[in-house]
Amino acid sequence: MDKQEILHAYELMVLSRLFDSKMLALQRQGRLGTFASSQGHEAIQVGSVMALKKDDWVAPYFRQWPAFIALGYPMEMLLQYNSGDERGMLIPKGINVLPVNIPVSSQIPHAVGLAWGFKKKGQKKVVVCFLGDGATSKGDFHEALNFAGVFKVPVILICENNQYAISVPLKRQTASKTIAQKADAYGIEGMRIDGNNVEEIYEAVIKAREIALQGKPVLIEAVTYRLSDHTTADDASRYRSKSEVEEARKKDWRIILKNKIINEGFWNESKEKQLIKKLELLIEKAVKKFESIKPVDPMDIFNYTFNEMTYQLKRQSETFKRFYPNG
Fold first, then answer.
1. Quick one: 196 and 301 in the same domain?
2. Which of 17, 192, 226, 254 is labelled catalytic?
3. Catalytic annotation present for 226
4. Is residue 230 annotated as a catalytic residue, yes or no?
5. Of residues 172, 239, 304, 315, which has the active-site annotation?
6. For a tag on the chain, would you pick the N or C end, based on fewer CB atoms within 10 A?
């Protein structure tokens, strides 16, 4: 990555961290629903997206907010989705990303199928599929990798190994020394990289893209640490120590990358303050846009369940209108 690319990545990563903190605050205020923080994952997602071409696709799971931001997804729509309004995942044209998948590992077969379709059509595109380390303990992961290896589809699976599947540490999930080595069983390429080093991630995904287009899927294990709770419904202090988290924070990209660009002479504290002020204004604008969106009509659940409303739904909708005339 050159100077401008590093600075662009840094800005996207800082924006993602600030936006994540804002979403956590909004959730605690009751303005959003249960939320999965991405703190600690920003370098993996931003570096990966920056390495892709315009026509490539991304298959996310529920912790992909930095990837969405790097793809140019409107932040007000991410807030809308996390408030429980599914219209927030009505993907804008020109952004090649699948909607968020909540069930663990369910996005992996989707990604492999999409990549297979590109191959059958002779299109030079790849699909990047993000997954957590917990997803590697699910059947969908193994079935999808087996299919990808057999049919040689252009897919890159990026495992964000944050050390925990909710409360279960990696050592209780697998006897393998690494996740990357699981690639060997399926005849695909395996890589293991530092998930806090955006340049290493960027270079790995560029290389993986070339390999995938040559007919060999790639599994990348990006090693990081989940700095937050699993979700806002979790209390990570029940299963990991404060000292463990503090040690992980010393390796956070926010410290390492900031020190790097300051030491190389193209960043300083004054620029940092200006950047944070600019990004906080962007986030506040997104929040205002989100809160100005007209709420979804509760009657939609009756109107759009079937092509023609059933007798039972008609009765239920009439009861709803009677008790809630204003929705």
1. no
2. 226
3. yes
4. yes
5. 239
6. C
